[in-house]
Structures are given as structure tokens and as C-alpha cells.
Design brief:
Chain lengths: 256, 305
């Protein structure tokens, strides 16, 4: 093994002896000095996860979170120098993490937080202009064929748990004690200007947005939404998306 | 903003750094932190420059680029990399070099710098600046990596001296000689981190003044100042940790004054990455650095008068 590979192996294994060939001017045990590097790496990577998943941390407490993040980090150190991308596998890890079983909604809250960070750093794009909206919606007969382009920051999360209410309660909106975590909720995450917004989407609404994001034409997306919920209100949902700047284009296939 | 002319004489009469018409101004600067974005734009504090960590801005869009564009319009900029892993055994990541080139192209910084350290191995990133032995093998490798970096980015880079906690039995060169040969072979400049010189001096019982004096000071393009934390090694000897999480220590200010006497006025960054205080606290440290830069300027004028 290379010297640096041995160094890395010892960084990530707290039980491992420190690598051979390390010295100190006073002949003191280099393990104590090596521990500074081990601590820097472990603490900074756990801190990076704590920055990305603050509500996940609050739900289980600092001590539990840091222990859980430590297990994840040792199994999956960052594969990129871009720490903003670190933690993509953390929600799936939480789902399988036996000690977190008693908090079944934890993984989905982490998924919501991951989508927020992605939205925060996503590419900039101008929302569709009012003139183009008016033109796109002018001919009702051609509405079903319209295809939308979603803002690069847009994400939809469908959960069996009350992810939006749980997350919002940790932002000071609503009383956590009043939240029933076992009510399914869907979240729309999109950056509006410089701020990432998190909204609850009713059933049907989540189907519409996810279908548009998948590239389905408006008519097909609306039909799927109606199938999910009989009283689905297409006009209200389109108005919401346009008001938030969540769509950057609405075009007929012939215009594309 | 005052720029140095090439080959001026320092107070001691030794030639001081070769400078570049587009370099950072000989003033104090601050690390740019998101919690200060809005206040900086609202108050436009009187500062020489801002410095960013390149890796934090290798994202597609959003607030980081929004604010950096506006701040870049108002201030000179230094881009400081923490992830290139110049000291790594493996080759440099060409994707990362491409990303850095794009970032440098976008923001046209007055300075680009990286570390004498490694932070990646086998595709994993450790978010820390790890140490390397100093010998002929590692020297060749580091020089090769710096050559490739400067070719790829089509500019001269500054290399930062590290803070370290251990030494290697495999080292055959001392750190200052190692750095001097890198600078001589690659033509890169030097980012003199005075805090690192002090921290490593205490940790390895080296004289930090002698260490600084042995570096190729004519090639220093920027100074870093930061705070450290105190620990002990297994024998109870002091072990200083380069945390960037505290005020600059008195001993580091003294060493800074020693360095400036030899360098003349030099762009100086107040580096704070943890426990970040209000902007006003950092601005006070920047003003303190500018007083020392002013003394160095005055000393030089007296010599040349």
C-alpha cells in the first residue's frame, strides 16, 4: 500500500495505530499528534453533514446525529471536493440505520433538506415572462400539448410522512407538538430569487409538478393529477407555479 | 490602491518581491463569508481585497454567485483553493483543474493560491490539509503538479506553507529548503502564512524567524494571518492547532512585523473560517494589519530618502 493510503486508512479507523514513519522532535508518541488530523477530518466532515441536515439533527439531537453521521462518513467519505454535494447518500443510509428506526420519517426529512441545498446552489434561470405566459395560454385548444421547463432548482418530494409540517415547525412555523408525523405530505422545493421555498403540495399537485418535471405535456400531467384527486384544480396549481417563478418556459412542441 | 514596482529595496536593503501589475494591493483583506454578504454590499467597508475558497463557489448558481459578482465589482479578489491536493501521490484531477479554470475565468482574480498539502486519495476527499514528507521523490511530484496547474490555469500560482503536527522519518530536506526549491523550479510564488510558520515552529521546535528568513521572500505575493488553538502532545509539549477559529495571537503579530520588515508592504489576509465573529471584529484586525503595512511602507521611504 502507498504511504498516503496507509495514512488515510488510519485516519478513518479510530482503532488503527498511527502510520509508521511519523516522528516528533521530542520523541513523544506520534499517535497523539496524528490524532489532530484524525479529529480534523472526522469533525469537519460531520460538521459538513450537520450544515446540510440541520432539522434532521434537531429531530434526533446533536449526540445521536453526530454518531450516525460518523458511521456514514466512515463508510462513505466525500467523493468530490465540492462539500455542497456531500450527503447525497445520507437519506438512504438513515433509512437503513437500525438505531434510527424509531424515527421513521427521519430519512424523508433529510431528503427534503438535501433538495433545499441543491435548490440553493442550482443554476440561475429567468422565470417565464408574463407575455409568454399569456401567449402560451391564449389558445385553450392547444393547452394540452404545452410542455413546461421547470426551474433548475425545482424538486418534488412525496412522503408517507408530514415532512413539510415537521420541517416548517423547526423553522418556527407551527407547533411541533401539534404535528402528526404520520400524515402523508408532498413538498415542492424551488428557489425564488435568492430564497429557497418549501411548500406543501396537495395530492394531485405533486403528481402535476412531478409529471411536468419529467417532461410530460400539460394535458397528460393534468390527467394524471385528476386521476390522483378528483377535485384537482389545474388553474390554481399553474397559477402557483407561475407566481413562484417555478417554470422557465411553456412551449408547444412545434416551437421547441 | 498602490502597486509595488519591481525589485524595490526593503528596509534591510534586500530586493523585495517581484510584483505583477495586476496583483493584489498592498493592503489588508478578509475571507468572504456568506453571513457577511449583505452587510458588505450595504456598507462597502474600506478593505484591500476579499478572498474566497474556490471549492465553495464551484456551484452552478444561486446566492453565492449573486453576491460574489457584486462584491467582485467593488473589490480586488483572491481565489484560494483547498481541494487541488498538490501534495497527493496520485495525479491531479483534470476535472477539478477545468472547474478552477472556469472559475478563474469568470471572476478574474488578482491572485490564485493553493497549499503544500494533500486532501484527496483514491477519489475520496478529506476536507483537511494533510502533510507530506520532504524528499527528492515528493519534491519532483509537487513540482510536476505545480507545473501542470500553472500550465492548465495559464497563470502563476502562489503556494502556501503548511501548518503541521507531525514530521516524517522519510524527510531529507527541511521545509524551507523544500519550498525554496519548488519556487525556484516551477516559478510559482509564495503565500506566506505567518500563523502556519508560527504553529509549525512551536510544534516542531523550530525558530519561526529563521524559517521565514530561509524562504524565498522575494517571491511572496500574499501573507495569511489567523488564530490557533493550544493543545499538548503525548510528552506534554505545546501542540498548536491551526483552527482559523480565534483572534490572531500576539506572537503571530510580532512574527508578522518581522516578516514585513523583510518583505516591505505585502497584501495580507485576515483568515477566519470557524466561530466567525461580526464583520466589525474582522475589520478591526484588518485595520491592525494595515497599520503594520503602513510602518513597512514608511520604513522603506525613510531608507530611500
Amino acid at each position: 500500500m502507498s504511504d498516503q493510503r496507509l495514512f488515510v486508512a488510519a485516519l478513518f479507523d479510530p482503532e488503527a495505530p498511527c502510520p509508521a514513519g511519523l516522528t516528533a522532535w521530542n520523541g513523544s508518541d506520534p499517535a497523539r499528534r496524528f490524532a489532530v488530523y484524525r479529529n480534523n477530518v472526522v469533525v469537519s466532515l460531520i460538521d459538513a453533514l450537520a450544515d446540510t441536515f440541520p432539522v434532521t439533527l434537531e429531530l434526533v439531537g446533536e449526540e445521536f446525529f453526530r454518531a450516525m453521521a460518523g458511521v456514514f462518513m466512515r463508510a462513505a467519505p466525500p467523493g468530490s471536493v465540492l462539500l455542497a454535494e456531500y450527503g447525497a447518500g445520507f437519506p438512504a443510509f438513515i433509512e437503513r440505520f437500525e438505531p434510527a428506526r424509531s424515527v421513521p420519517y427521519l430519512a424523508d426529512v433529510a431528503r427534503l433538506e438535501l433538495l433545499r441545498v441543491r435548490a440553493f446552489h442550482a443554476a440561475d434561470a429567468d422565470p417565464i415572462s408574463p407575455a409568454r405566459i399569456a401567449r402560451a395560454l391564449a389558445d385553450p385548444e392547444r393547452l394540452p400539448a404545452l410542455r413546461a421547463t421547470c426551474h433548475p432548482s425545482l424538486g418534488v418530494l412525496r412522503s408517507d410522512y408530514a415532512v413539510v409540517s415537521l420541517w416548517a415547525a423547526h423553522q418556527g412555523h407551527g407547533d411541533l407538538a401539534q404535528v402528526d408525523p404520520f400524515v402523508p405530505e408532498s413538498a415542492l422545493i424551488v428557489r425564488v430569487g435568492l430564497d429557497v421555498q418549501v411548500l406543501a403540495l396537495p395530492p394531485g399537485g405533486d403528481t402535476l409538478v412531478a409529471s411536468l418535471a419529467d417532461g410530460l405535456p400539460l394535458g397528460q400531467a393534468a390527467a394524471l393529477a385528476l386521476a390522483a384527486r378528483e377535485d384537482f384544480d389545474l388553474t390554481a396549481h399553474l397559477a402557483l407555479l407561475l407566481r413562484m417563478g417555478a417554470l422557465t418556459a411553456l412551449v408547444q412542441p412545434t416551437e421547441a | 490602491m498602490t502597486m509595488q514596482t519591481p525589485f524595490e529595496l526593503s528596509a534591510r536593503g534586500v530586493p523585495v518581491r517581484r510584483t505583477y501589475s495586476d496583483g493584489l494591493p498592498n493592503r489588508a483583506g478578509l475571507g468572504l463569508k456568506p453571513q457577511h454578504f449583505a452587510e458588505i454590499l450595504a456598507t462597502e467597508p474600506d478593505l484591500g481585497f476579499f478572498e474566497i475558497h474556490a471549492e465553495n463557489y464551484l456551484v452552478a448558481g444561486g446566492p453565492f454567485h449573486h453576491y460574489l459578482h457584486r462584491i467582485r465589482d467593488r473589490y480586488p479578489l483572491s481565489i484560494h483553493g483547498v481541494g487541488l491536493s498538490i501534495g497527493a501521490e496520485g495525479p491531479l484531477d483534470p476535472t477539478h483543474l477545468d472547474r478552477l479554470a472556469t472559475l478563474l475565468d469568470r471572476y478574474q482574480p488578482q491572485s490564485f493560491s493553493e497549499h503544500l498539502a494533500w486532501s484527496t486519495h483514491g477519489g475520496a476527499f478529506f476536507n483537511d490539509l494533510l502533510p507530506l514528507p520532504y524528499n527528492r521523490v515528493t519534491l519532483d511530484r509537487v513540482c510536476d503538479h505545480i507545473d501542470r496547474t500553472q500550465e492548465h490555469l495559464r497563470r502563476r500560482m502562489l503556494l502556501e506553507n503548511p501548518a503541521t503536527y507531525i514530521e516524517f522519518a522519510a524527510s531529507t530536506l527541511d521545509e524551507a529548503a523544500f519550498i525554496a526549491e519548488i519556487v525556484q523550479r516551477t516559478g510559482c510564488g509564495l503565500l506566506l502564512d505567518v500563523n502556519n510558520a508560527y504553529v509549525s515552529g512551536v510544534n516542531h521546535r523550530r525558530d519561526p524567524q529563521a524559517y521565514i528568513a530561509a524562504l524565498p521572500l522575494s517571491e511572496v505575493g500574499e501573507i495569511h494571518l489567523a488564530g490557533f488553538a493550544e493543545d499538548r502532545d503525548a510528552a506534554g509539549a505545546p501542540l498548536l492547532i491551526d483552527t482559523h477559529g480565534a483572534a490572531i495571537a500576539a506572537a503571530v503579530w510580532e512574527l508578522y512585523a518581522f516578516a514585513l520588515e523583510r518583505l516591505g508592504p505585502t497584501p495580507t489576509l485576515i483568515e477566519r473560517d470557524n466561530d466567525i465573529p461580526p464583520l466589525s471584529v474582522l475589520l478591526a484586525e484588518a485595520r491592525c494589519a494595515e497599520r503594520w503595512i503602513g510602518y513597512a511602507q514608511r520604513d522603506r521611504l525613510e531608507i530611500s530618502a
